[in-house]
Amino acid sequence: MKILLITILLLQTGIGIAQNIEITVLNKDSQPMPYAYILINSKPVEISNALGIALIPISKLAERDTISVSYLGASPAWTIYNNSLQETKKLSFKLDETGYMLNEVVVEYQDIEKLFKRSVKSTPQLNYNCKMNANFDAKIRVSEQKTFLVTGILEAENEPYSKNFTFRAHGWFHRPLKFITNSDTAKISRVLSAQTHFALNNIMKALEFSRNHMLDHYKPFYSYLGEKDNYKVFRISYPETINLGFPFQIILFVDKDTKYIHSVELEAISRSDNKNYSNIYSIKCDCEVYTHKKPLMNTVYLPVNLQYSFQTASGFRIEIMITNPSIKVKGRFSL
């Protein structure tokens, strides 16, 4: 009886394996690349695990589908699903990270995380009683036939002067955003507000995740991409966890002299209502170092020239550009 059960179990396991395509993502040195995004016909479907491996159900694939891999800071790679791949059920991608326009710097480090912590000055996120004003441009494509263009001024508040406010206990700008524009945004104001909130909060989340004394229990994957101009370039990849919600890839340009973060790039994929990965968004911004005179405010980063893009599998897409920000603290404008 035990032999029969074992045989059935092995057969079921074999069938389970046969129903998937095993995709392995490696760098040019054949090292695993964890938390890479796997896409079918440009739509995200899975991420690789800590060993750089992802399993894609054959049921999600049709002949001539395009299977591609996206990894921030690496050249994209793709292939066509065909009869040969149906038979082997194994696929390996080797991603090239040299195309990131970095200077030729060859450095061997045993511990990239330790190098990162030595290279980056810990700077808190911008998260205190304040108001922010900035210019914004937005392009919202609801469908192929309907696109909205919105420009104007953005006003945002971060729980200013609230008795319930706890220093750095809450995220960025929980109050409603205010858009001053001549455009008709009545039909899309909620979408514009929600996506701008999302952009602001996630760039702050990227900075928070990059702080060199936090989130060690999430076990991110660190990469050192080399140097560009006077900046060291690092990539931090986070897996999907209960707290993070979805996987992140973050690239930081760090000033070699001051150790402040100069700019941030972020990519992430999130799940839709049907629990499948289908939404992908990216953020880029420069980080302006801002030091308030009062010690409570400390040194923070203010996002400058923030570019935000969000798209869904259904075709909805929104692009937002936030420029020329200024912050007001207790009646005084700064920066």
Question: How would you characterize this protein structure?
Answer:
The chain is α+β, with helices and mostly antiparallel strands and 335 residues long. The protein folds into two domains: 99 residues, Carboxypeptidase-like, regulatory domain (Immunoglobulin-like, Sandwich), CATH 2.60.40.1120; 205 residues, no CATH class. The protein has four helices and 18 strands. The strands form three sheets. Strands 8, 9, 10, 11, 12, 13, 14, 15, 16, 17 and 18 form an eleven-stranded antiparallel sheet that branches. Strand 15 and strand 16 form a beta hairpin. It is globular. The C terminus is likely disordered.
Question: Treating each run of at least 4 consecutive H or I residues as one helix, how many helices?
Answer: 4
**So what's the overall shape?**
globular
Helix content: 10-25%
Determine the N-to-C terminus distance: 77 Å
Order of helices and strands: HEEEEEEHEHEEEHEEEEEEEE
* Most strands sheet: 11 strands, antiparallel
Task: Give the number of DSSP strands.
Answer: 18
Q: Number of domains in the coordinates?
A: 2
Return residue spans where pLDDT drops below 50 for at least 5 consecutive residues: 5-17, 160-172, 331-335
Q: Assess the beta-strand content as a share of residues.
A: 35-45%
Structural class given helices, strands, pairing?
Answer: alpha+beta
State mean pLDDT (0 to 100 scale).
77
Task: Please state the CA-atom Rg, rounded to the nearest Å.
Answer: 22 Å
